[in-house]
């Protein structure tokens, strides 16, 4: 019975966060109103407050979910290509660049240190370091699985470098996504192979 109640509550929270996300994408966090979120989610305004406590609590939940989904998608893109380091790196980098181009929340999270005026920014800024760490961790875990003899410090440097370069291309794109992803995947392959070479 408790699991059923927890599942129903999670669905309710997801519905509310979905509504908040849609409003944020449409008009920015400053334009989000708890009453509007409640109406879009088909619940009362009090229900939104009961679940999240405040607009700040809802912002925190929205930022956390965006990070979780993004990192899960990066991990899936890497896993899909197994031991093919270059193809896996390309898929993960392409996904990240594409997602940042089409998802203003992910772009804001990945580039939040660059500043901005939206009131959601403080919640995203607290997530920026987390998403960089988790994305590097995803890349590092995957490379470690497929390059077990590699030097751990060199792998960590390679993963961190690739993630930071991807973010720099989100902030200041210089070429089409496919071309950038291809060039960065070549670099990732070089860094990871170098880490694995005694």
UniProtKB/TrEMBL annotation:
The keyword Ion transport does not apply. InterPro entries: AlkX_C, Homeodomain-like_sf, HTH-type_TetR-like_transc_reg, HTH_TetR. Residues 10-70 form the HTH tetR-type domain. It comes from the Bacteria. It holds the Pfam family TetR_C_35. Coiled coil: none annotated. This is TetR family transcriptional regulator.
